[in-house]
């Protein structure tokens, strides 16, 4: 039981997660059949930092995106291109890969009364296949059919079973997002285990609304989500999905409303300084602020000087100079006798911010420290002591900044970079470190107004609209992958002239399910064509490995860096002038725009080459042409929202960073509006959530890991 002291010392609130949720908040490792290796894979799949953070409830929110319908049995000859079908046929023959050629496929030929199909396997073991698919055996296989030159093929069937054992084959099966090394069958078992832990939830939705929307009860909604019977159950408008989406919006809007209510109650600590520190920093810069940077600084300092706590969003396109605006605010906080923190989403970005900020801050005699998950032992203790004593005036780091062992002498300003990569509750945990620190949230992802409201509530917004002086425009071209040879040749001559380039790939390692080029594979191919001094960086490397690869590229030891989107946010190499993005059609527009912003940061003209695999859909053509014709991130963001929806825009759907897990602003915009009004009504009538519905809503907040909002409400 946690005892939390409120703003008024006379009141003590017992804040505690309802016991009925305990089974859902056990770690995934407690589920039957989940050993250490599987627990690690599930943590990776669920986007959690560690097994300890991966809870049973996360599996419930891991929604299927498609179904395999084994009732679809058209016969081999009548199977449409690209469709998932079930085929019952007899095994004719096996055709193993030639000896010594591991990249060639192993094929097994099966026929039914309409025709023949080749079941194709890469890197498969022949002994296993001969047992699973014996010659002359009647088998049932499910998977996607492809046609080449009039011949049918199925690569890595989803399911293979002898007809004699087919009774245990489900007719309809959900298809989930997976991670390398995790099979659908094993994931399904874990999800089934999670479903058995569902408690009897109290109802937190207004009865009239639930009836009007045909919402099932929440536990039934989870069961229906994971047991789709046909295509309509996978649709975002299916009642189960709408119910869970509404809950998600309501939890988000309610926690934002609680925060806003609390911000209004707790007065800020006015920060007023002459501006000497900021002036010293500016005097040492080789350039002056742009008009929108100056306006942003003015807005922020005005907010900070007031009686109310600042809660402001600083939106600036890639390279618009947000860090410098934040530094002006932090310098003012330090001059007024306080401390400031800057929280970044990754180790690389935190250390880069530290390198930049500590250099500028030195001009004003400001002492900086950096604290990340990798800071250990004696070094960590020393830094924590400097923070506690106030000697460290600006502290930069990752989520390690708000761990329990870190205490601040006088935290008055918290700056959060790339906010959409942190949950709201993490933001609150950080603000709880100060008495009532002002908060500045920065993002380089230009976000349309609807998304700002959904993700941040009604925050004040400052926009940086110009690029800093001296930035050259970036020439963007779209080129089909057939011409990749030309690109490599042009790259070779550019590198020989001393230029630096990035080459971005969508995957870490080659996968049998996908024909996308992986970073590791492309690195090997380019090393052969261009010579050995090529760097490689991807998300599965350890922190020190990433830092070493980045450092080698920055110092010029390597001139070409092959990477995944790990370089998307904030890595700064001013003399890199070429960006090649492979399979550009598979990235979101906002993400492509962020990646493109890694070049054009110096005074040389830069180029971004979007390599795409044709033929492109109409939507695909429209998206790439928007990017080719515009460098305005806000325009690109609005277009991207129209074309693809917010999951891509906030980078949440693809990268597993905190965002909406079920809800979609595109599909469920009507529900967001209802949730916002509902949250406002609740807070007005029952600000302490102490009525029966209020207590039920606390359960909702805990279920969606918004418990920090409850603590924040009472802890100040």
Describe the fold and architecture.
By secondary structure, the chain is of the alpha/beta class. It contains 26 helices and 23 strands. It has a seven-stranded parallel β-sheet, with helices on both faces. A six-stranded parallel β-sheet has the order 18-23-22-19-21-20, sandwiched between helices. The longest helix is centred in the middle third of the chain and has 27 residues, at 239-265. The chain is globular, with a radius of gyration of 27 Å. The two termini are 19 Å apart.
Going by helix content, strand content and strand pairing, the class is alpha/beta
Percentage of β-strand residues: 15-25%
Largest sheet: 7 strands, parallel
Q: What is the residue-mean pLDDT, rounded to a whole number?
A: 83
Widest sheet, order of strands: 13-14-12-15-16-11-17
Give the helix tally. Answer: 26
User: Which blocks of ≥5 consecutive residues have pLDDT under 50?
Assistant: 1-14, 645-658
The helicity comes to 25-40%
Outline: globular
DSSP strand tally: 23
| Terminal CA distance | 19 Å
Radius of gyration from the CA trace? Answer: 27 Å
Briefly, what is this?
By secondary structure, this protein is α/β, with parallel strands linked by helices. The protein starts with a strand and ends with a helix. Residues 1-14 and 645-658 have low confidence and may be disordered.
Task: Sum up the structure in keywords.
716 residues, alpha/beta, seven-stranded parallel sheet, six-stranded parallel sheet, 39% helix, disordered N terminus
Question: How is the topology of this model organized?
Answer:
Blueprint: E1 2-5, E2 12-15, H1 36-45, H2 56-60, E3 66-69, E4 84-95, E5 106-112, E6 115-121, H3 126-132, E7 138-148, E8 151-155, E9 159-162, E10 172-175, H4 184-195, H5 207-213, H6 218-225, H7 231-234, H8 239-265, H9 276-283, H10 291-305, E11 311-316, H11 322-335, E12 339-343, H12 347-362, E13 368-371, H13 377-389, E14 394-397, E15 411-417, H14 424-431, E16 438-443, H15 449-456, E17 460-464, E18 474-480, H16 484-496, E19 500-504, H17 519-530, E20 534-537, H18 543-555, E21 560-563, E22 576-581, H19 589-596, E23 606-612, H20 618-629, H21 633-644, H22 646-649, H23 652-655, H24 669-685, H25 692-703, H26 707-715
Parallel strand pairs: 6-8, 11-16, 11-17, 12-14, 12-15, 13-14, 15-16, 18-23, 19-21, 19-22, 20-21, 22-23
Antiparallel strand pairs: 1-2, 3-10, 4-5, 4-7, 5-6, 7-8, 7-9
